[in-house]
What we know:
Mean pLDDT: 91
Shape: globular
Structural class: alpha/beta
Low-confidence stretches: none
Strand order of the largest sheet: 3-2-1-9-10
Largest sheet: 5 strands, mixed
Number of helices: 8
Oligomer: single chain
Strand content: 15-25%
Distance between the termini: 39 Å
Amino acid sequence: xxxxxxxxxxxxxxxxxxxxxxxxxxxxxxxxxxxxxxxxxxxxxxxxxxxxxxxxxxxxxxxxxxxxxxxxxxxxxxxxxxxxxxxxxxxxxxxxxxxxxxxxxxxxxxxxxxxxxxxxxxxxxxxxxxxxxxxxxxxxxxxxxxxxxxxxxxxxxxxxxxxxxxxxxxxxxxxxxxxxxxxxxxxxxxxxxxxxxxxxxxxxxxxxxxxxxxxxxxxxxxxxxxxxxxxxxxxxxxxxxxxxxxxxxxxxxxxxxxx
Length: 259
């Protein structure tokens, strides 16, 4: 089965211009069987699909994910078991170690999105990962192909995955229609739900991944400028600090409930 494994919808990501209805239409036209909704710190896009799925194609699989903003290692793609929408995964700012512990405790999988992509949000440009590269061993996969990154960024991501024996996923990271379906992941079995996907990745069931990188324009290159990089990091850390009391409350509730 062929999936786009990194999709942002306008119902769940403020920087996306694409409705999930349009996503599905475009992906089906390109021969895809499904998609993973990975809105920023949000399940709103997936919930929108759930609430309206009777009006959408029943021969197309929509899976639930999230792109989580850690405070110290950039963005991570997180896939939890069916029907498990942890509130804490919708509150940015956890450390990567805490994220890994929570995701695995509840039976989910995770991996860095675009590990060598934009410096403001990619794991391997953060001191935490530079000083502790062995943390890669705790991840279940890496995003080995991202349409919105450079050829070089994707190549070194794949080399990192090979070094640590991790599978790669491919996703378009689309926020605009023109990039939808420019990346893919193929699985060696039928995937109908999150539980299927988690089992497949754990068993090494990624059959192929890849795609085409977008043409890089001057506006795309500016995102790695000093101002853009540190501006976003300051923004992310500020929000993470602001949300910290609520996030810590949710983490404590999880610990008490499962102690």
